[in-house]
Amino acid sequence: MIEQRLNHLSALMDQMALVMPRLMRSSCDETDLTPHQGILLRALEERGPTSLTELRQSFPGAQSTLSELVGRLARLGFVQKKPLPADRRTVMVAITARGRAMVEQQRKVMRERHRNVLEKLSSEDQDRIVQAMETVAELFGRAAAAVQNAEKEE
């Protein structure tokens, strides 16, 4: 039974990956930011100053890729990197006022794109899509927490 669910989930995720960019496009279209840079900026806004080590745990992938991502955001003035006074080997990354302004611009753009999507649907379908996204976010959040807990136990 799980194999059927896996196949169906994979097909749905592929379908979403094809449809979502057409509906939403990146919130970074009007900027020179990549979607990953936008995600990182929003995460820093939410979390506050965060060490590169903590960011690596939240954003898996090549260490050099994250360093390049943070470096580019720093060069653009969206984040600031500072060594931690107590341990100069630890680099803290914090969003700047310019970065916060960019996040706000991205939110406005995405809100308009979401409006354009919802306006194409009936009131009932609007409720359904919001409810479905709530469910997906909750379940993926729960699954991610379970994976993270299992990794800690290893």
Descriptive key words:
154 residues, mainly alpha, Arc Repressor Mutant, subunit A, 3-stranded antiparallel beta sheet, 6 helices, 3 strands
Explain what you see.
The protein is mostly helical. The protein has one domain (2-120): Arc Repressor Mutant, subunit A (Orthogonal Bundle), CATH 1.10.10.10. The protein has helices at 2-24, 35-47, 52-58, 63-75, 97-119, 123-153; strands at 50-51, 79-84, 87-95. Strands 1-3-2 form a three-stranded antiparallel β-sheet. A hairpin with a 2-residue loop joins β2 (79-84) and β3 (87-95). α2 crosses α5 (97-119). The longest helix has 31 residues, at 123-153.
Short description:
The chain is mostly helical and 154 residues long. It has helices at residues 2-24, 35-47, 52-58, 63-75, 97-119, 123-153; strands at residues 50-51, 79-84, 87-95.
Radius of gyration: 18 Å
Given the C-alpha coordinates, what overall shape results? globular
Total DSSP E strands: 3
Query: Helix coverage percent of residues?
Result: over 70%
Strand order of the largest sheet: 1-3-2
User: Would you tell me which CATH topology applies?
Assistant: Arc Repressor Mutant, subunit A
